[in-house]
Specification:
Number of domains: 2
Largest sheet: 3 strands, mixed
Distance between the termini: 27 Å
Mean pLDDT: 74
Order of helices and strands: EEEEHEHEE
Strand order of the largest sheet: 1-2-5
Strand content: 25-35%
Helix content: 10-25%
Structural class: alpha+beta
Radius of gyration: 16 Å
Low-confidence stretches: 1-13
Length: 102
């Protein structure tokens, strides 16, 4: 989960948390499920929550545009994952593709 803080126009501090995936829920390991299945479960949890600053991030349709934004922000690159893939752990992970900005 990624978070960011800011200041509202009223001067009140604001917070925004973004979630992308769900790996465990109620003690159950969800990593063997596809990213799509995990995100569907996460969608239901976010919808039922009373946390106004919690936002679900589905992904990006335009990878080239995302890479340009990453480059402008001085980031090294972006990482992508096949939506039908399970969440795997370890040093060598199939299904992930790194895109460096050279």
């Amino acid at each position: 989960m990624a978070g960011s803080s800011g200041v509202a126009s009223s001067g009140e501090a604001t917070r925004s948390d973004r979630v992308r995936s769900l790996l465990y829920h109620d003690g159950q390991d969800l990593r063997p499920l596809s990213l799509i299945d995990r995100r569907l479960q996460l969608t239901e949890l976010v919808a039922r929550s009373n946390v106004r600053c919690l936002h679900l991030v589905w992904g990006f349709d335009d990878g080239a545009k995302l890479l340009k934004v990453a480059e402008r922000r001085g980031l090294e690159g972006i990482v992508s994952k096949r939506q039908a893939s399970a969440q795997l752990s370890g040093p060598s992970i199939c299904g992930w593709k790194g895109t460096a900005s050279c």
